[in-house]
Amino acid sequence: MVATQRQTWQCAAIDHGVAVFPDGRVGPCCQIAADYLKPAAVIPDPDRFGDLRTEHAPSACEKCVRNEHDGVASYRQFFNSRKTGRTRNIAFVDIRNTNQCNLKCRYCGPHFSNQWAIELKQTSPLREASLEPWHDHLLTRDLQVLYFTGGEPMISGHHWQVLQKLVDGNISKNVSLMYSTNLTQLRYKQLDIFHIWNQFQSVNIMASIDAIGNVFDNIRSGARWANVDQNIQLVLAQSSKGGIKLSLSCVLSILNIWHLEELIKYCQDLGLDIDFILLDGPDYLALDVIPDQLQSPALAVLERCQRSYPHAVLEQARQRIENNQNQVLFKQCLSHVLLLDHIREEQLFRYLPFRDLAQALITSNHEYE
To answer: Domain map of the chain by residue range?
Structure first.
């Protein structure tokens, strides 16, 4: 008799989740390792991700393992908190099937922004995997949570098509929507998003905002803080009626850590929650690139932020800054900032405490000193 493999690693997304990426490949969620992704043709197969049912955590699930170890809420914990039943119906759908975007965020790239691809003069800047062949498997009465990101979902015609399909099918009232959006757009042609959102069970909006004012404008290239601030006020006005929740999702990097206090104060003044994400790539913009000479001021900012807004990820950020093992990449960080400032006629370098150190690193003539 062949012994069956004992399963102790439990994640509801293995049986009930599908995340669709711009290249058409799929995984159980957006946190899965990229080298695990499979062709979309596996969607109808109820055992599509069965190889993740293992005794120990699969290597593809490292992000959730790391977060849970550090006391940070993981996607696995979110999925496991939902009631799914014993069948392997698809209950969680994550749609990130296009790189169509209206911004060129500093740490993004052509895979998730066609504006980046256009700037890099790629021959096929827009990537979009059609989901229509799989709508009958994904958009069913079993659906509980529908997560949109991109690209930028609010400018994607497919996003609006999917919402209308769920409304027309009398499914929307049982579906919770989740968004990762830059919040630059709230309308599509003549369509008003609030009218459509009111026909769903709930809406959870995570606005991708890493700073405020001029710093925001220079990190989220193509956006304007005045416009986004206005949209935040509009969403908050709607959320007061119930059913809609707005929070901020802040990516922590070497570009914005210096201005984190201003963002936290802005959120506290409006009663907004913030979720923090540590930037892993590009590696030359991560927190562990902060050199020894800038380590103390970065840690001082972080300490004040932790006092005013305690959060487990801020503790992770402190550890990365202290263990600045990649500070050798700081020159590459400088090159990236200055090059994009030049190409885009922006001024991010002006808002970063890099000038004195950059001058010493670049202009020193060590041969004759």
So the answer is: 12-208
